[in-house]
C-alpha cells in the first residue's frame, strides 16, 4: 500500500536537464506529495551547449508557467521556424524542415499526395512554395501564428534558439521560488540499500549524507547513478550514427538574423549555425573515423559568418541510449539517459519527455515495476523514432565526397526505417505520430528534401480532378506569397518584443 508521506526526491546534476526536471517537479507536485532537492557541483562544468529547440518546448514552458518574453530576454533568445539543410542530399542541394505543414489537405487527401500526383503528371514545382513557415524563414520574417485556424498564417508553429546555460539559470530561479532546495557539492559516494538494491543515499565531498526515496540522475555523460552505480547498460548506435565529436564556437552576430537553424553537411559530418540575440552559435559535429580533430576545427573556423568570440571547444559523445533509463528508484534524464546528436534539436525535448512521463507515472515510496516498464517503453519509443529520423538524413544521400557519406549510404539501416522508406517510396505514406516525434510534415520535408520520391499517391487524391487540385494549390501558394511580405522581420520582431534590456 502506498503511504501518504511526501516522497523525498533527489536530483543529482544541475545542467539543463537537472533544472528542467526540478522545475517541472515542483510545478506539477504539491509539497504534501514530494520534497524536491537538487545537488550540483560547481567543480564539474555542464556540457555548455544546446541552443536550438523544437515547438514542443513551448508545452514545457506553459506547463511550468514561464513567461515567454521574460525567458527570451534572460536567455538571449530568438525565434525558430525550422531548420535549413544545406548540401545534405548532395552538394549544392538545400531544403527546409519547417515547423508547419506543406499545404493544407485537399478533399480529404494530404497535400503532398496532390503535389505528387501533379509532379507525376509533369507539373514540376517545388513543394516548399506551399509552406508558410519556409516562406517566412527564407525572408527572415517572424511573428506569432494567427490563432484563427482558417487563416493561411495559422499553418505553422515556432520554437526558440537560446543559451541553454542561461535557460538553466532562469529555471533555477523559478524552481527555488517554488520550494526546490538546492545544495552545492560534489557527490563522492552513492550507497545502496543492502536488501532492495535501491539507491539509498548520496554522500557529498563535505561529508553530508543526503537520503532519498527517489533519485533523478542528471549528471550528464557520467551517468553517476544510472550507469556507474546501477549499471544500466548503454545501447550504442554508432554504426548508424558515426559522429562522435563536436567543436563548438560562438561568433559575432551576422548581418543576416535568421529565424531558423542552419545545418550544413560537411565532408565528415555537419555544421550548425544558431542565431542568438548577441552572438551566433556554431559547431561542427563530426566522426573521428573520417577526419582529424585539427582538420575538423580548421573547417569550422574557416566557415563562420562572423568574428570568432572564443577558442573552439571540443565535446566527445557516443550515440545511443540506456536500455532502461528508469532502473529501480533512479530515473535518468538528459545526457545521463542517452545522446542523439543535435541534428534535429531533440535533446532538450527528450528531457521534457522524461520528466512529463515521470509525473504521469509518479511512483510511491515503493516503486511499482509496471510503472517503470511503461516509462521505459515510452522513452525508448521516443528515442528510437528520433534515431530513425536522424539516420534518414545520413542514409539518403548521393554525395560523392567523403567516406562518411559512402558508409551511411551503403550501411544496413534499422528494419523500422527500412519499412518507412519502402512505404514512402511506394505511395508517399509517411509516419504521422500524434503522440511524440516526428509528425508527417517533418518526415515529408526530409524525405523529399533528400531526394526520396514516391512512385504513387493516396487513392483519395483521385476524388478531386487534377485541374481543380492545381487551382487550389495555386490559391494556397499565392495566399502565402501575399501574406509573408507583410510580416515584420525577425530582427524587428525580436527588437520590439523581447530584446535584451
Ligand atoms: P550536463 O550539462 O553535463 O550537466 C551535468 C550536471 O551534473 C552538472 O551540473 C554537473 O555539475 C553535475 N554533476 C556531474 N557529476 C556530479 C557529481 N559527482 N556531483 C555533483 N554534481 C555532478 N540539445 C538540444 O536540445 N538542442 C541543441 O541544439 C543541442 N546541441 C548540442 C550540441 C552538442 C555538441 C551536444 C554535445 C549536446 C547538445 N544538446 C542539444 C544537448 C544538450 O546540451 C543537453 O541535452 C543538455 O544540456 C542537458 O545536459 P545535462 O544537463 O544532461 O548534462
TrEMBL record:
Which residues are listed for L-tryptophan binding in this entry? Answer: 344
Among the Pfam families in the record, one is Trp_halogenase
Q: Which InterPro entries match?
A: FAD/NAD-bd_sf, Flavin-dep_Halogenase_NPB, Flavin_halogenase, Trp_halogen
Q: Where is the signal peptide?
A: none
UniProt KW keywords = FAD, Flavoprotein, Nucleotide-binding
Instruction: Name the active site residues.
Output: 80
Matches recorded under SUPFAM superfamilies? FAD/NAD(P)-binding domain (SSF51905)
Which GO terms label this protein's molecular function in UniProt?
A: monooxygenase activity; nucleotide binding
Q: Can you name this protein?
A: Tryptophan halogenase
Amino acid at each position: 500500500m502506498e503511504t501518504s508521506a511526501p516522497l523525498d526526491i533527489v536530483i543529482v546534476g544541475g545542467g539543463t536537464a537537472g533544472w528542467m526536471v526540478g522545475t517541472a517537479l515542483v510545478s506539477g507536485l504539491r509539497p504534501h506529495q514530494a520534497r524536491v532537492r537538487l545537488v550540483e557541483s560547481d567543480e564539474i562544468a555542464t556540457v555548455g551547449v544546446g541552443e536550438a529547440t523544437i515547438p514542443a518546448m513551448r508545452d514545457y514552458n506553459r506547463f511550468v508557467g514561464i513567461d515567454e518574453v521574460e525567458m527570451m530576454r534572460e536567455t538571449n533568445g530568438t525565434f525558430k521556424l525550422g531548420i535549413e539543410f544545406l548540401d545534405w542530399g548532395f552538394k549544392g542541394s538545400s531544403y527546409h524542415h519547417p515547423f508547419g505543414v506543406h499545404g493544407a489537405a485537399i478533399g480529404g487527401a494530404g497535400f503532398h499526395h496532390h503535389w505528387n500526383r501533379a509532379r507525376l503528371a509533369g507539373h514540376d514545382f517545388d513543394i516548399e512554395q506551399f509552406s508558410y513557415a519556409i516562406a517566412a524563414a527564407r525572408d527572415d520574417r517572424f511573428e506569432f501564428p494567427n490563432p484563427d485556424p482558417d487563416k493561411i498564417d495559422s499553418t505553422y508553429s515556432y520554437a526558440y534558439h537560446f543559451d541553454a546555460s542561461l535557460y538553466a539559470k532562469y529555471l533555477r530561479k523559478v524552481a527555488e521560488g517554488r520550494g526546490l532546495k538546492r545544495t552545492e557539492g560534489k557527490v563522492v559516494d552513492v550507497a545502496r540499500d543492502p536488501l532492495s538494491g535501491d539507491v539509498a543515499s548520496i554522500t557529498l565531498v563535505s561529508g553530508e549524507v543526503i537520503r532519498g526515496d527517489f533519485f533523478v540522475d542528471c549528471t550528464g555523460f557520467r551517468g553517476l547513478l544510472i550507469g556507474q552505480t546501477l549499471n544500466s547498460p548503454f545501447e550504442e548506435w554508432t554504426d548508424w550514427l558515426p559522429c562522435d565529436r563536436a567543436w563548438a564556437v560562438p561568433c559575432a552576430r551576422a548581418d543576416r538574423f535568421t529565424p531558423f537553424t542552419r545545418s550544413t553537411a560537411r565532408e565528415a559530418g555537419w555544421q550548425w549555425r544558431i542565431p542568438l540575440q548577441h552572438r551566433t552559435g556554431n559547431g561542427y559535429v563530426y566522426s573521428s573515423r573520417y577526419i582529424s580533430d585539427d582538420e575538423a576545427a580548421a573547417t569550422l573556423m574557416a566557415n563562420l559568418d562572423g568574428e570568432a568570440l572564443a577558442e573552439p571547444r571540443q565535446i566527445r559523445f557516443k550515440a545511443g541510449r540506456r536500455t532502461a533509463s528508469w532502473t529501480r528508484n533512479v530515473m535518468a534524464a538528459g545526457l545521463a539517459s542517452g545522446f542523439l546528436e543535435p541534428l534535429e534539436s531533440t535533446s532538450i525535448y527528450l528531457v521534457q519527455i522524461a520528466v512529463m512521463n515521470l509525473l504521469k507515472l509518479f511512483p510511491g515510496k515503493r516503486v511499482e515495476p509496471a510503472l517503470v516498464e511503461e516509462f521505459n517503453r515510452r522513452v525508448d519509443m521516443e528515442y528510437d523514432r528520433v534515431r530513425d529520423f536522424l539516420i534518414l538524413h545520413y542514409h539518403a544521400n548521393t554525395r560523392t565526397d567523403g567516406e562518411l557519406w559512402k558508409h551511411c549510404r551503403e550501411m544496413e539501416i534499422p528494419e523500422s526505417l527500412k519499412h518507412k522508406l519502402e512505404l514512402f517510396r511506394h505511395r508517399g505514406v509517411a509516419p504521422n505520430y500524434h503522440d511524440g516525434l516526428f509528425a508527417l510534415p517533418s518526415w515529408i520535408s526530409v524525405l523529399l528534401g533528400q531526394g526520396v520520391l514516391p512512385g504513387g499517391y493516396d487513392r483519395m487524391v483521385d476524388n478531386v480532378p487534377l485541374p481543380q487540385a492545381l487551382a487550389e494549390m495555386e490559391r494556397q501558394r499565392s495566399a502565402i506569397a501575399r501574406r509573408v511580405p507583410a510580416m515584420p522581420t525577425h530582427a524587428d520582431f525580436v527588437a520590439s518584443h523581447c530584446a535584451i534590456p
